[in-house]
Amino acid sequence: MVIAPDQVKRRIYLVRGQNVMIDSDLAELYEVETKNLNLAVRRNAARFPDDFMFQLTAAERDSLRFQFATSSWGGRRTLPYVFTEQGVAMLSSVLRSERAVQVNIALMRAFVAMRGLLATDTDLARRIIALEAKYDSQFAVVFEAIRQLMDTPPSPERRMGFRADEQ
C-alpha cells in the first residue's frame, strides 16, 4: 500500500523548534493502536533518547489542539509523545512489519521534502530582506506619510455624512 506524501506532511508539526510527529498519528499510519506503539517504544527505551522522542507538556498539547483543531486526542489520559525525524527512523527497528517498512519510507521522504522547503523558505526570506533594504529608503517618504495619517486624530468639528443645506 502506497502512502500519499500529503497524508504524511500534514502530520508533521513544529514543536520546540523541531519537526515532529505525534504518537497517535504515527500509530494510525502504522495501523496499530497508540498504546501498542508506545509499549514497543518503552520496551526499547534505550533506542529513544530525548532528542529522538519527548513527551509534550500540557501547554504544548493544548496549543497543537487549538492550532490544528485536533480532536483525536479526546480520550487520552496521558500527554502525547512526539518523535523527531531520528525517532521516526528508529521506529523501523522496533516495528517490524511490511506496513512498517512502507510507512517508514514515506515518512523519511516527507521529512526530506520538509527540509527542502525550509531551505527554500530561508532563501526566499533572505531575498525579501535584501529587497526591503534596497527599497526602504525610496519608500521612506511614503511610509512616513502613512504613519502621520495613522497618528493624526480626526478633527471633531468636521462631521462626515450628508448635511441638509441651511436656509
Structure, explained:
The model has no long low-confidence stretch (mean pLDDT 75). The chain has a single domain, classed as Mlu1-box Binding Protein, DNA-binding Domain (Roll), CATH 3.10.260. A 4-stranded antiparallel sheet has the order 1-2-4-3. It is elongated. Helix content is 59%, strand content 10%. Helix 5 packs antiparallel against helix 6 (98-151). The chain has helices at 5-9, 23-30, 34-43, 58-68, 85-94, 98-151; strands spanning 12-15, 18-22, 53-55, 81-84. The termini are far apart. A hairpin with a 2-residue loop joins strand 1 and strand 2. By secondary structure, the chain is an alpha+beta fold.
Please tag this protein with its features.
single chain; 167 residues; alpha+beta; Mlu1-box Binding Protein, DNA-binding Domain; elongated
Task: Show the helix and strand layout.
Layout lengths: L4 H5 L2 E4 L2 E5 H8 L3 H10 L9 E3 L2 H11 L12 E4 H10 L3 H54 L16
Antiparallel strand pairs: 1-2, 2-4, 3-4
Helix pairs in contact: 2-3, 5-6
Quick synopsis:
By secondary structure, the protein is an alpha+beta fold.
Shape: elongated
Strand content: 5-15%
In the predicted model, the low-confidence regions spanning at least 5 consecutive residues are: none
Number of strands: 4
What number of structural domains do the residues give? 1
CATH-scheme architecture? Roll
Number of helices: 6
Q: What value does the average pLDDT take?
A: 75
- Gap between N and C termini, in Å? 85 Å
